[in-house]
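Form 7-S
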Amino acid sequence: MVKPGAGYLQTCLSVEEEINKRGGKPAFPTGIGVNEVTAHYAPQEDDESRFIESDVIKVDFGVEVEGYVADTAVSITFNPEFELMLEATERALNAAIATARREPRTGEIGGEIFREASKFGFKTIQNLTGHTLDRYVVHAGKSIPNLYVPNMPSLKKGDVFAIEPFLTVSSAAGFVVDSPQETIFAIAARRKTGVAELDSFSERVWADRRTLPFTPRWYVGEYGKEKLGRMLRDLVKKRVVHSYPTLVEASGKPVAQFEHTMALGDDGLVVLT
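Output:
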């Protein structure tokens, strides 16, 4: 799906259609991160952006079945300048998985990601982490950093978690910041606002998603772009809905990402994606 000239939106629609066809639902809106755009960008219905030869492209998607979530991501580039960065990111993921098989401390797993990145001359993104998953919750209680952090919690039997190294070039700032753009939201609190249209919409989303993230694109046909935008702004102000700003690398440098979801069971670590 991802090739020069292909559209961001069409890629998302294809991924989500395939998930539905196979009997699941999208666990969250399919994310497209191009170059310095690192996470939480979901193309909307009027997005006409297309991939070009020089891009570093991240596709982050998840599947939900009865509330249980699997989360994965891949990076693609057609630019030889960044092929090694993608290879190093995938190696960092594999090294982290190997570490997680014998070492439950999340800080040690993060240290292995950092060491593998450094070997190849790249930086990890300091303020993004992997995470445990729970039913109807994409980011549950424990984090798995992309560098060594002491005194982090250990993974336990029964934990389901995603490891996701983010790597960037050595000259980058190495952390992400919020951009003004918001394309992903989630129900934060199921409570009445006293405004009929807001309560009706939040109940509609709850019935579809519970606390899993959603994107306006999924509802624009039903409510219209203007009305939907206004309702979301009001619901965010009332703290019924939480918004996720698009995250960008602070110095504008490209970022690569690979991710797998896995579980610690009786027979050890099982990679689910």
